[in-house]
Design a protein that fits this description.
Strand content of chain B: under 5%
CATH class of the largest domain in chain A: Alpha Beta
Helix content of chain A: 40-55%
Strand order of the largest sheet of chain A: 2-1-3-10-4-11
Oligomer: heterodimer
Number of domains of chain B: 1
Radius of gyration of chain B: 22 Å
Strand content of chain A: 15-25%
Structural class of chain B: mainly alpha
Radius of gyration of chain A: 23 Å
Number of helices of chain A: 11
Order of helices and strands of chain B: HHHHHHHHHHEEHHHHHHHHHHHHHH
CATH topology of the largest domain in chain A: D-Maltodextrin-Binding Protein, domain 2
Shape of chain B: globular
Largest sheet of chain B: 2 strands, antiparallel
Number of strands of chain A: 11
Order of helices and strands of chain A: HEHEHEHEEHEHEHEHEEHHEH
Number of strands of chain B: 2
Largest sheet of chain A: 6 strands, mixed
Distance between the termini of chain A: 75 Å
């Protein structure tokens, strides 16, 4: 009798363990998913991630949590995801700073940027050139003139080191034909601070993304000279940098999803489908626009190609 | 404009909005009490939920958490010398001293009352002056900041206690600790010994929890205290300060409110910093500066009022310009944007009811907080009598969790424990801890504003050509000179008194 009970127990345990294994073969996801954002809460990357998380939670019926792990040039957050189990429960909200620009910023990374599993891009927010509202500079051309004639005293906002902000200025300077090293870069800690510096009239030319610019713009403190993207920003009568006469200066801060290396193909395709459908949804587009991000979809292969392209551009621009 | 406030107040008094305000205040107070968990963390956790709420309700809750946390932070600071918020470090100085004298109730009461005064005056100021002074925030550039930070450094001397040298050394140590990690302006790595954890630098919260929370518990366990205060406490009513003491407390609160509010308009101005400055001002103008640190009611009232006033003032640049002055307000900005509301004059025009409802709910929330906190003063005060062997483990557990909370990393928990050990050593050596925190806060601000100013001008001349930085730097030198002079004179005077006592 005891033997029967013991066998039944062992059988039950084996089934339970077996079921746990079989669990992974069921449709992904069956367990809560954690999206790690390498920035503080409230910024556009975080806000866009939360919009997507909400949509996916409704779609998949499992909790999709956004966790913020800011600091250290995004390296700690990326390291954590690279070392996580490749079962789709820990993923990174990837962006240009934590991938394409990372190995130029940080030497001796414990991983290769291309090792991660790229899963898809869900949106982007372009850099925009801004000046204080009362500035004599009214167009991007005038700004380039100011830069050319008064190079040594030309102040602009930098985020120090390597980032989308500095990238757009370097590209602009290259097109204008000015050596960026001769100008006065005024470094600040974050995008919002850079915009505040510009709005207060402390620098001559600034740059930022929509989420930081929107409010001071509507308060009449800023003027946008141009949008560094291929298309104009919706509902805004501001030219693109190409239209303003400066091609090859497009820099966008894109946001996507990446996972640990060797993530199974079915997880990648589940995300691929989900992201594609989310980006096509009008309501999602609107919410992301509120967060200052344009919903746009690029699949895993396109994402990997984009990262490689931007990586080479970064290395060329930052001369390392 | 008056019509706006009245209709906003009426809207804020609807059951739903009152409910949101109460929930926000409760959460905020809870979050403020727990060391480590700050308003920013709570607001970040609540952000996804707020998407499901109506915009007005979402903003009311978030705002409630923000100033509720300022109320709650002082409770543990006063009762157990464990600041719940960075801003409460200053309150703990005299607050805890009062608790040890059995006057925890008075300290808690004046903290609540002072915070209430600051909240109400702040709301009125927002309603009346509001957007017009928002521009101040913009014109305060890097050179002006440098002047302000330099002026704030004179407070290091105030908090140094007996030995100015020790205070200054600890201030410098604080600055050095703050420089660990990534250089905020160029991204270079500093002092990270090759580890990725240190790349992020040290967060103020685990350091604070270690130095004040864990170290306090360790020190108390070492001295084998039975309870924090063993005597009798009296009734709740007796805990409300009265007469001359109340008058002094209210005066200090008023001064703290002004300082906190004016400075709170500037981006990057942390409530902690205005708390330090208002405490310093109280000490400077007091007739008995030496008694600060041993239970002066002004030392509790002023910083508490200041940090609340700063919290309120932060709403002005936020709502009129979309510029968040603290990280928690950045999350509130995110909430506004997600709900499709762009701050600015357009917000005041197109969404007037929403703005005035939020302002109206500030009045309600502050009143609710006073009503919540004042009767609880008796209950909280009795915690000082709980046997320490029960209190200590609970506090330690909460501290470790609180250290982990801000950045979701175990590294911070270890940092807190390490600083707990460092803190208990410093206590044994009778070293003051407040200058270390102040240095930690001021170091990055000093460095950033200095480097930005030089980048703007090319030469340090900018500090003397612009009026505000020049005034602040001169002021700092004067205050420093005055403080040192007074100390020398009072030491001479007390020396004379001692000598004459010996003679007779």
């Amino acid at each position: 009798m005891l033997r029967v009970v013991a066998a039944a127990l062992v059988g039950a345990m084996l089934t339970a363990f077996g079921a746990a294994g079989a669990d992974a073969q069921n449709k992904y996801p069956t367990r809560p998913v954690e999206l790690i954002v390498p920035f503080v809460a409230g910024a556009s990357t975080d806000a866009a991630a939360r919009v997507i998380a909400q949509v996916l939670e409704a779609r998949w019926g499992v909790p999709v949590k956004v966790v913020n792990k800011p600091g250290g040039n995004t390296v700690p957050a990326v390291t954590e995801v690279m070392a996580a189990k490749p079962d789709g429960t820990t993923l990174l909200v990837d962006n240009i700073a934590s991938s394409a620009m990372l190995d130029t910023v940080v030497k001796n990374l414990p991983f290769k940027v291309s090792d991660r599993t790229f899963m898809g891009i869900m949106g982007h927010t372009p850099m925009m050139f801004i000046v204080p509202a009362d500035s004599p500079i009214k167009t991007l051309k005038e700004a380039s003139e100011a830069m050319r004639t008064g190079t040594e005293s030309f102040t602009w906002t930098s985020l120090g080191g390597v980032g989308a902000q500095d990238m757009v200025f370097r590209r602009f300077a290259a097109v204008v034909g000015v050596d960026i090293a001769k100008t006065r870069a005024v470094a600040s800690k974050g995008g919002a601070e850079a915009v505040t510096l510009t709005a207060g009239g402390h620098v001559r030319l600034g740059a930022g993304t929509w989420s930081a610019i929107a409010a001071p713009l509507s308060a009449g403190k800023l003027r946008i000279l141009a949008v560094a993207a291929a298309d104009r920003w919706p509902k805004l009568d501001v030219p693109t940098t190409s239209e303003a006469g400066f091609p090859d200066t497009e820099v966008s801060f894109w946001i996507g999803i990446s996972g640990p290396p060797r993530l199974p193909a079915e997880i990648v395709s589940a995300w691929d489908l989900a992201l594609k459908e989310a980006v096509a949804d009008k309501a999602v587009n609107e919410k992301m626009l509120n967060a200052g991000v344009l919903a746009s979809y690029q699949n895993a292969r396109e994402m990997a190609a984009r990262v490689e392209r931007e990586r080479e551009l970064t290395q060329k621009l930052f001369g390392r | 404009m008056d019509a706006g406030l009245l209709s906003g107040l009426a809207n804020a008094l609807t059951p739903a909005n009152i409910g949101f305000a109460l929930i926000g205040c409760l959460l905020g107070t809870l979050v403020g009490i727990l060391p480590g968990l700050g308003p920013a963390s709570a607001m970040a956790i609540l952000l996804p939920v707020s998407i499901y709420l109506p915009p007005t309700g979402a903003i009311i809750i978030m705002a409630g958490i923000y100033y509720g946390a300022m109320y709650g932070g002082s409770t543990t600071a006063i009762l157990m010398n464990i600041p719940g918020e960075v801003a409460s470090v200053v309150t703990a100085q005299d607050g805890f001293a009062m608790t040890k004298q059995g006057r925890a109730g008075q300290a808690l009461a004046i903290a609540a009352i002072g915070s209430y005064l600051a909240g109400m005056l702040g709301t009125v100021a927002i309603a009346i002056v509001g957007p017009r002074i928002a521009d101040l925030a913009l014109h305060f550039g890097p050179p002006e900041y440098f002047g302000l930070v330099l002026f704030s450094m004179t407070a290091l001397v105030s908090f140094a206690g007996q030995s100015i040298f020790a205070g200054l050394m600890l201030g410098v140590l604080g600055m050095w600790l703050a420089s660990i990690g990534t250089d905020p302006l160029t991204g270079t790595q500093r002092l990270n010994f090759g580890t990725f954890e240190l790349m992020r630098g040290l967060d103020i919260v685990p350091v604070l929890i270690g130095l004040f929370g864990i170290a306090e518990v360790l020190a108390s366990l070492e001295s084998k205290i039975e309870q924090i205060y063993g005597g009798s406490l009296g009734s709740v009513l007796s805990m409300i300060p009265r007469g001359a003491e109340m008058a002094r407390g209210m005066a200090a609160s008023a001064r703290g409110t002004v300082i906190g509010f004016v400075l709170g308009l500037l981006p990057g101005m942390l409530p902690a910093l205005t708390a330090y400055l208002s405490y310093d001002v109280e000490r400077q103008i007091s007739r008995t500066p030496d008694r600060f640190g041993s239970g002066m009611i002004e030392g509790v009232a002023a910083p508490e009022a200041a940090n609340n006033a700063t919290a309120m003032a932060g709403f002005i640049p936020l709502l009129s310009l979309g510029i968040p002055t603290t990280p928690a307000l950045a999350i509130l900005l995110g909430t506004l944007m997600i709900n499709g509301l762009t701050p600015g004059p357009m917000l005041f025009q197109q969404q007037a009811l929403l703005v005035w409802t939020v302002i109206g709910s500030m009045l309600i929330a502050n009143t609710a907080l006073l009503v919540l906190n004042l009767p609880l003063v008796g209950l909280w005060a009795r915690i000082s009598r709980v046997p320490y062997y029960v209190l200590a483990p609970i506090v330690l557990a909460v501290c470790v969790v609180g250290a982990y909370a801000p950045r979701n990393t175990m590294f911070d928990a270890w940092v807190a424990i390490a600083f707990g050990i460092i803190g208990s050593f410093l206590r044994r050596l009778q070293m003051p801890l407040a200058p270390l925190v102040l240095g930690f806060l001021l170091g990055p601000m000093l460095e950033q504003s200095l480097r930005q100013s030089i980048a703007l001008e090319g030469t340090p001349a900018i500090f003397v050509t612009r009026p505000i930085p020049l005034a602040l730097i001169v002021g700092a030198v004067l205050v420093l000179g005055l403080t040192l002079l007074i100390r020398r004179r009072s030491r001479a005077v007390s020396g004379l008194i001692r000598d004459s006592a010996k003679e007779s």
